[in-house]
Design brief:
Blueprint (H helix, E strand, L loop, with lengths): L6 H26 L8 H23 L4 H22 L6 H21 L6 H5 L3 H12 L9
Helix pairs in contact: 1-2, 2-3, 3-4
Length: about 150
């Protein structure tokens, strides 16, 4: 079997995702046992988790070789997570409310675009189809399944 193009990037994305899940576990541990954690750790763990999953998502999306519009949409979602992370890390900053509002706007816009079906050739849309339909609609090079070949 030949692996997907960008398989090294996918490994990096999975490792970043696993580290993010560990940070989330620590964050939830803080909720159960706050006295066992250093001061400021909750703020750091929350912001770190959000920022790291944004990075993991961008690495994963770049491995999938999206169209420029698809990557712009992925970058918009990552930016939403980064603004949310900033709000978590600097909650008392004068800009905290602005960071939060930008995150909300970007999350709402992202979901609206999913509902509206834009961009039409999104990875999620492609992979909800059977591989032969996906390959027909995007061509083997643009299909999530097209770069896999069984031997």
């Amino acid at each position: 079997m030949v692996l997907h193009r960008g398989s090294h990037q996918r490994v990096v994305a999975v490792v970043l995702g696993a580290v993010t899940l560990a940070a989330v576990a620590l964050l939830l541990g803080w909720d159960a046992f706050p006295l066992h954690y250093p001061a400021g750790s909750h703020r750091f763990l929350g912001a770190f988790s959000l920022a790291l999953i944004a990075l993991a998502y961008l690495v994963d999306q770049s491995a999938r070789r999206p169209t420029p519009l698809e990557f712009a949409k992925a970058a918009m979602l990552a930016a939403a997570f980064l603004f949310w992370a900033a709000n978590q890390y600097w909650p008392n900053s004068p800009q905290a409310t602005v960071f939060n509002d930008i995150a909300i706007a970007l999350f709402v816009l992202d979901v609206f675009l999913v509902i509206a079906g834009w961009p039409k050739t999104s990875f999620a849309e492609c992979c909800s189809q059977r591989c032969d339909e996906c390959a027909a609609s995007r061509g083997n090079e643009g299909c999530c399944c097209g770069s896999i070949s069984a031997q």
